[in-house]
């Protein structure tokens, strides 16, 4: 079983153990129930941020060791996902910076002053 399937199985088990429905999880994550269901069955790409939110809700330590034939990490960090998430954060930061500058320009123009 690959890491993602193992993680999704653990999420499903822990959610059920705690008596939390898919609708409850979706509400806590701010998404639709069908979107959460797609996450849990592996139908949608799972971002690291979303995975951490789910783990926090369920009280799962994603980096804990677990017992099997030998000790292994619960998840393997995928550098491509981390790279994608970092780039997304950088884009969001740049968009926020541009929006802030635009708002500041509007305020300064309102008062008849130009930004230096």
UniProtKB/TrEMBL annotation:
CDD domains: HTH_XRE. Residues 11-63 form the HTH cro/C1-type domain. GO terms for molecular function: DNA binding. Residues 83-110 form a coiled coil. InterPro entries: Cro/C1-type_HTH, Lambda_DNA-bd_dom_sf. Pfam families: HTH_3. SMART domains: HTH_XRE (SM00530). Keywords: Coiled coil, DNA-binding. PANTHER family: HTH-TYPE TRANSCRIPTIONAL REGULATOR XRE (PTHR46558:SF11), TRACRIPTIONAL REGULATORY PROTEIN-RELATED-RELATED (PTHR46558). This is Helix-turn-helix. It comes from Thermoflexibacter ruber.
